Amino acid sequence: MATVFPEVVVDTPERRSAVTLQDVAIEAGVHPSTVSRALDPANSGRVREATRVRIMEVANRLGYRPHMVARGLQSGRTATVAFVAADLGNTFVTPIIHGLTGAIEGGGMMPIIAETEDDHNRLTWILDHMLSRRVDAIVVAAARDGDREILEASARIVPMVIAARPLEGSALPHVIQDDHDGGRIVAEHLASRGHRRVVQLKGPSDVANFPRRSAGFSEAAGLAGLTEVSLDAEADHPIVSEGQRLMRRLIESADPLPTAIFAHNDLIALGALSVIRERGISVPDDVSLVGYNDLPMVGHLSPALTTVRYRSRDVGEAAGEMIVSLLRGESPESVCLPAELIERASVASSESE
């Protein structure tokens, strides 16, 4: 007897019967244009509340989904915002995305996320790709000094906000933290704990946050009478392995070690801490250590890391609000958030030298 196999039905877009806007209109007893307005966050206020609620209920019951491509062709908008980060593996970035998403979803938009790996050519390719997709706006949290020309050129096509990393000399709207002040409060904290010989493990000088942190620290250290040990190297990228390299360089070149170290971000501090432990040096008994950003894990280290809190979720939220404002044709002011020192166990008091 021949084996009888059940008929296999392949589900394809052609076989599916999509619910249309007209279907919702007929079921709700209104004109299709009323449905269109009611389901568009930008225009729903033009529909009476009772009618809007009825239309939403019908749309949800029927399983209606707006055709975003068709809506984009009609309105000139795609309801998408590009978010460009340098390193999506850095836990500093995640809260920025959360804040941004929450701010733009109220306007019916969602983010498209990309990573440059801190590479200018990748940034250029990503911007070209996002513009070809007709995104409504772009938020860039990956700027380096050499990126200014391509960023400003892209900003002439769609609204753009620079977030987290300042772009020196550019008039583009930005949402950043006062990194100069962040460096200052670190130096003043170390001076208040009796430290007199200090050093910086610096981030890359073409990422504007780090020169600003360095300048704020050095100015405050000078005013407090601290001796700043010079290290003839900086991180190529603000990552753990570069913190390890810089710490090894410091141990090889400084005798004795400074009593306190200011790492320009928490990842550099984590790299430094691993080398410090390898060499049998104690934090904070032998050397104090301060980071920057207040990543989620650093409060759980042993010892817990003293650091400067960077309110990255607030940065994302402010950037999203700025994008919404720009798309309304408004001219929002740039935002600079305050720095805050989080004192933990990695800094000890030191006797004056």
Description of the molecule:
With 353 residues, the protein is α/β, with parallel strands linked by helices. The protein has helices at 21-28, 32-38, 49-62, 68-75, 93-105, 120-132, 148-155, 179-192, 209-223, 240-253, 266-278, 312-327; strands at residues 80-85, 110-115, 137-141, 160-163, 174-177, 197-201, 227-229, 260-263, 288-293, 306-309, 335-337, 340-342. The protein has twelve helices and twelve strands. It starts with 20 loop residues before the first helix and ends in an 11-residue tail after the last strand. The chain is elongated and about 80 Å long. The strands form two sheets. The protein has a six-stranded parallel β-sheet with strand order 2-1-3-4-5-11, sandwiched between helices. 41% of the residues lie in helices and 15% in strands.
Radius of gyration: 26 Å
Counting DSSP H or I runs of 4 or more residues, the number of helices is 12
Number of distinct beta strands = 12
Percent in helix = 40-55%
The largest β sheet comes out as: 6 strands, parallel
**Span from first to last CA?**
98 Å
Strand content: 15-25%
Q: Which whole number gives the mean pLDDT?
A: 90
Structural category is: alpha/beta
In the predicted model, the low-confidence regions spanning at least 5 consecutive residues are 3-16
Gist?
With 353 residues, the chain is of the alpha/beta class.
Write the layout of secondary structure elements.
Elements: H1 21-28, H2 32-38, H3 49-62, H4 68-75, E1 80-85, H5 93-105, E2 110-115, H6 120-132, E3 137-141, H7 148-155, E4 160-163, E5 174-177, H8 179-192, E6 197-201, H9 209-223, E7 227-229, H10 240-253, E8 260-263, H11 266-278, E9 288-293, E10 306-309, H12 312-327, E11 335-337, E12 340-342
Helix pairs in contact: 1-2, 1-3, 5-12, 8-9, 10-11
